[in-house]
Amino acid sequence: MWKNIFDWLNERLGLNDLQKSLLERPEPKGNWWNTLGSASLFLFILQGLTGIFLTVYYTPSPDHAYDSVNYIMNDVAFGWLIRGIHHWGATLMVIVVFVHMLRVFVTASYKYPRELTWLIGVGLLIATLGMGFTGYLLPWNQRAFWATTVGTQIAGTVPFVGEFILKALRGGPDLSALTLQRFFAGHIWMLPAVLVGLIGVHLFLIIRHGESHWPKKED
Amino acid sequence: MPESLSRRDFMKVSVYFVGGIVGATVGLPAVGYLIDPALGGVAKEAWIPLGKLADMPEVGKPYPFSFTRVQVNGWERTATSHGGFVIRKSDAPDDLVILNSRCTHLACTVNWKEEERVFLCPCHDASFDAEGAVLDGPPPRPLDRYAEFRVTEDGILEIFYKEG
User: A1 in a domain, yes or no?
Assistant: First the structure.
């Protein structure tokens, strides 16, 4: 029966083709440096899943944010695990995405016809850093509060539009409930939406172009 | 393990196997994480001291008391106040009526009116007699009683309180 169900779905969805193009793409030459993109994708999915789970208990309000994070860490079963994965996964994701970028740079994989893949990758890096910046405020502890105070102040030093950027980031001149709420919205809705969209195009381009070959001496 | 297993197939099986283990070690705790508040959480109960029984000597006179219970739901603490009256029906130490002062109509707090010897509810003028029976007004049933009580060795009157 399972075979019938699989065949029915396969005929309509082309599962075998999907598997071939997604999971069994030929590698030009087995090289661990070429796995960093997949590692980034895996970390993104992991962050997405653990993040969804965290919203079950987290409250983005100045009255409750800190207490709700404490509750997750101390009282909910495996809350420490879910938040721990999200916390360390975030750091790891920034590192992996950055090393992925370095690899592409060093192997000159951003050249024709992959310029667009590179540009979208730049967008992905910025969005990833944005996730780090917005997520850092959410625990609403001293470190989060002052890190965001400093971070938004740095954004405020931009000539001419600096003050506007600072107010737009904070939702007013000061760090407040509005800041926490908009960082939360950015962290769980806007930036993930941007990331998912960009990742989709990024992956499409990679499957379309195949992987670049590892540079040889003559290159 | 068949000898014809190719390197590629071995890698595939290994990937699915390791992936399954990783998925289970994160997935199973995640289920526990989700359903955690649904586990446990039985109704809380406690013995609440009301004061020395010796301080409530008069038969037939309602002695008011009040206490506060704190409920913790996740990261939120809610304090609820409770009140009532202790009435001696005779001199025997266990011949007591302990009433809850919540009106059984719409949960307003009833007050003792000494002149008329009734409990009056300020909301809809309901009245109850000294043992809580309805005399007048809309309440559907007599005042609730704290049926379980005890007197400790030190002479403290305690009632058994159950949440919910």
Answer: no
